[in-house]
Design goal:
- InterPro entries: HTH_AraC.
- Residues 182-281 form the HTH araC/xylS-type domain.
- Residues 320-329 have a biased composition (Basic and acidic residues).
- The N and C termini lie far apart (43 Å).
- It contains eleven helices and ten strands.
- The strands form two sheets. The chain has a six-stranded antiparallel sheet with strand order 1-2-9-4-7-10, sandwiched between helices. The protein has a four-stranded antiparallel sheet with strand order 3-8-5-6.
- It is globular and about 50 Å long.
- The protein has helices at 116-122, 137-141, 143-154, 162-170, 181-191, 199-206, 210-221, 225-243, 260-270, 275-279, 284-296; strands at residues 26-31, 41-49, 55-59, 65-70, 76-79, 82-84, 90-93, 100-104, 107-114, 134-136.
Length: 329
């Protein structure tokens, strides 16, 4: 499959083609995973460009993601002062608390969003080990998954077949429950709730000590709970402003912000600059993806993707290590 062959769009028949409009020579596709995978994978994104000259693009801080390159030139990723690359064809982008920039040279990039619940069922490793890092997928999640994705995508000649392939590759990989499933679901729901920002409040709602919340968040979500909650609050506010073209209308920011200057301090933390300067930079794919993802999946960005099912009542805590994978009975 070549970039020239990507038509873009989605397998969902209810989304207007206008959601996927891109500049000439570029195409974009979004698809929902199979419902059986919806708790673990937050969406499939495909970006394509036929132009092989270097192109810069900025992206918002996000949860973990798998990226596979097809017929693509070298790609490098910059997160803060750290530069990764050229990255492997199959790469793992760890959870980020900073906006990151990519430099591409055409081709196709297939992105697979991974929820905290999905991460917990795939590996016993801590997501915190990959905070603001990009690593070969073979290192993060194993050579077998990396090889299956690369070989499968290389064999396709139609972008509409990417979703069925990914559904097939991931089918069965999340079947083993984790002891913290209910807690991970419940915390995920709180991170996308307006006004929730205090760690003590969250710990009380989840009925766990704050030190246990800190450990769980770092292990499964990749960073301390306070940083996760601040990231979600900032992104909720930032995206409301930019999608309404109202960067000066601070009445739309999250209710837990004291004032506009409080919000702008968070912009410095998560974007590295002001919202206006960030949007004025290289954000062609970002702005298009916010529109298309919202139309197909319901949330404009992966960091604001909620739980696929209602969070169940939390079970009683055991005296054992709740973050250790238990053997099957």
């Amino acid at each position: 499959m070549r970039a020239e062959d990507v038509r873009g769009g989605t397998s969902s028949g209810t989304v207007s083609p206008s959601a996927f409009v891109m500049p000439d020579g570029m195409a974009m596709r979004y698809d929902m995973p199979d419902p059986a995978l919806s708790e673990y994978l937050t969406g499939y994104a495909i970006y394509a460009s036929i132009d092989r000259t270097p192109m810069l693009n900025w992206y918002l801080p996000a949860p973990a993601m798998i990226s596979v390159l097809v017929d693509a030139g070298p790609l490098t990723v910059s997160i803060g002062n750290h530069r990764f690359g050229p990255v492997d064809r199959a790469s793992f982008y760890g959870p980020t608390s900073r906006a990151f920039r990519t430099e591409t040279r055409g081709g196709i990039a297939v992105g697979i969003g991974l929820s905290a619940l999905g991460w917990s069922r795939l590996t016993a490793r801590s997501a915190g080990d990959f905070h603001n890092r990009v690593a070969p997928l073979s290192v993060a999640l194993g050579a077998e998954l990396s090889a299956r994705l690369i070989e499968g995508l290389d064999a396709l000649d139609d972008d509409s077949m990417i979703k069925p392939l990914l559904d097939e590759v991931f089918c069965g990989l999340f079947d083993r429950p984790h002891p913290r499933d209910a807690l991970i679901r419940a915390f995920t729901a709180l991170t996308v709730t307006d006004g929730v920002i205090e760690m003590k409040d969250v710990a009380d709602r989840l009925d766990i000590p704050t030190h246990e919340l800190r450990r769980m968040a770092t292990r499964h979500f990749g960073m301390p709970p306070k940083l996760l909650l601040r990231r979600a609050r900032f992104l909720r506010s930032f995206i409301r402003l930019i999608t309404a073209d109202g960067l000066n209308d601070y009445s739309m920011i999250d209710s837990s912000y004291f004032d506009a200057s409080h919000f702008l301090r968070d912009a410095g933390t998560f974007l590295g600059t002001t919202p206006r300067r960030f949007i004025a930079s290289d954000t062609v794919f970002l702005r298009a993806s916010l529109r298309a993802r919202a139309a197909v999946i319901g949330a404009p960005t992966q960091a604001l993707h909620g739980v696929a099912k209602p969070a169940p009542t939390l079970p009683n805590r055991s005296s054992g290590d709740p973050d250790r994978l238990q053997p099957s009975a």
